[in-house]
Amino acid sequence: MTEHRTQVLIIGSGPAGLTAGIYAARANRAPLIVSGMQLGGQLTTTSGIENYPGFEEEIGGLELMERMQKQAERVGSKLLYDTITEADLKVRPFVCKGDSGDTYIADTLIIATGASPRKMDIPGEDKYRGFGVSYCATCDGFFYRGKEVCVIGGGNTAVEEALYLSGLASKVYLIHRRDAFRAEKVLQEKAFANPKIEMVLDSVPTEFTGTENPLGLTAVKVKNVKTEEERSIPAHGVFIAVGYRPNTSLFAGQIDTDEAGFIITKPNSTATNIDGVFSAGDVKNPLYRQAVIAAGSGCLAALEAEKFLSVNE
Prior knowledge:
Shape: elongated
Largest sheet: 7 strands, mixed
Mean pLDDT: 94
Radius of gyration: 21 Å
Distance between the termini: 29 Å
Number of helices: 6
Strand content: 25-35%
Helix content: 10-25%
Low-confidence stretches: none
């Protein structure tokens, strides 16, 4: 077991965490980045990215995160393959413990643990993730231009994604387990008026099916909860929009969060209610879930951590 001491400890290695590492390292703070269970974050499961600035050609999510990791390490960040399991934020320096048994002592902390999509936990979901199954229409919708797709959910996000996809796909099936949506009325009106969107109500998905070689989704099996009638909907892509779960259980009772568990930060800032603790990426901003936004907030967190250290040294 090893004790690590640092001026800036970054928990999470997605776009927010790695960008924070780049900026903190350039400020000569020798930051430590603890990778978490998924090095590179959720972006590593995205097969192709065409909207990240600076890349004229499509780049795979895994490759983008590998490049970002190398850049962070080149400028002076140290990446540690560990998962933080305990965090004491009551006093500074903050003390965190890893699954490895190592202890991390930090003057400032940047929380970039992200958010995990709520899964359906049905056959084919994991198999076709990245090959037809997605949790973000604005991330992956572009790949389904002119094709049939499904959206699962009944809230604002689901209806918004169906409307967004209607501008790309040939047809959008909006699948909801109830006979009425929770989404705002104005969104519902737009969706019902959209000729490309077909409502599949009182229905739940039971299986995602597709081809083996090449691996790809071809259909979504659904069951009507009232009649128990089953049908198979042809689809090259399915977008699951049943919510996101912020990865904040580690800090429960220590840091201010909203009702859903997302970290609350000060206006136009990444600063939390605890002096010296900052938050960046999807763990504090569940609305857009874009890599470039997460990276930008990671930059801001590092700049604010640097300012905090300068003032308090």
